[in-house]
Amino acid sequence: MHSKQRAWFWNAVFFAVIIGIGCSVYLAGKRIDYTWRWDRVTPFIINTDPISISAERNGTVEINADQSQITLIPDSGEESFVITEFTETLVSDGDLVFEGDTLAELHGWRIGPIVEGLIVTIEISLYSLLIALALGLLIGLMRISANPAARKLAIVYIEVIRGTPLLVQIFIMYFFIGTVLELERFTSGVVALSVFTAAYVAEIIRAGIQSIPDGQMEAARSLGMSYPKAMIYVILPQAFKRTLPPLAGQFINLIKDSSLVSVISITDLTKAGREVVSGSFAPFEVWFTVALLYLLLTGILSWSIQRLEKRLSASD
């Protein structure tokens, strides 16, 4: 009974702290006399405003009998313009219209720039994660290799990459290497993030492999396995289980670090947030929304790795 009371007490403390943080944010907004306008942010997430379809030339409007097609016949004698995708017609058959006049509207919803930036962030993070995992595994194996050249190359790679800021590496990748190899912005950003993250993944994998007792390799070799087979089927599966928590942390950092690619004009979630702030004049609402979306991505990744870790531990 006493342990239940303590649990209730500490749960109450937890909720009190959360409520206190929320009240602090609210009071801070009141102190700077800020008016919260979340409605300004909504159109940049999901936009339901109708799209206006305008006349491209001066001409005459023709509408077919079932109201499914609008044809604009230009006065200049050029080829007619046919409009088939619309929801509401704003002109009548035979009307004379001028360039720029609205002919119809297309209703529906479409994703806003914030969601478009979120999609770009997901793409960059996913590609970088897969490349970094493969490259990090290769560098990690080189790091523990008996070959002096491979081992020293891996050490130099890890020390150079971990010893320089990611922002500098992105600039070098885009303005120097990207110019020489004619890489696009997106590709340069993915490569820079992959190379940076792979250095940390390599050290995590190296530590995981070296944490496996030497007897495991000796037992596998005594059964007739070659070194590569023993590494693939015996050592790496055990090391992978042990390295899941630090790998999860590194991949979460990768998602957050992806915000730096906005400096080379990739319209990811962060750059989309900056553009929306300039157009909505709602900086706090926009940046809170951007932060929540990053939290959503990292939370999903963390939850997925935790599920994988539990499943692997249950299979032991």
Automatic annotation (TrEMBL):
Subcellular location per UniProt equals: Cell inner membrane; Cell membrane
SUPFAM superfamilies, from UniProt? MetI-like (SSF161098)
Q: Which residues does the UniProt record annotate as the domain ABC transmembrane type-1? A: 118-305
Specify the superkingdom: Bacteria
Q: Name one GO biological process term.
A: amino acid transport
**Keyword annotations:** Amino-acid transport, Cell membrane, Membrane, Transmembrane, Transmembrane helix, Transport
Q: How does it sit in the membrane?
A: Multi-pass membrane protein
Single GO cellular component annotation? Answer: ATP-binding cassette (ABC) transporter complex
MF GO annotations: transmembrane transporter activity
What sections of the protein cross the membrane? 7-28, 124-142, 154-177, 286-305
Short name of one Pfam family for this protein? BPD_transp_1
What does the function comment of this entry state?
Answer: Part of the binding-protein-dependent transport system for glutamine; probably responsible for the translocation of the substrate across the membrane.
**Family membership:** Belongs to the binding-protein-dependent transport system permease family. HisMQ subfamily.
Task: Output this protein's name.
Answer: Putative glutamine transport system permease protein GlnP
Q: Which species expresses this protein natively?
A: Neptunomonas marina
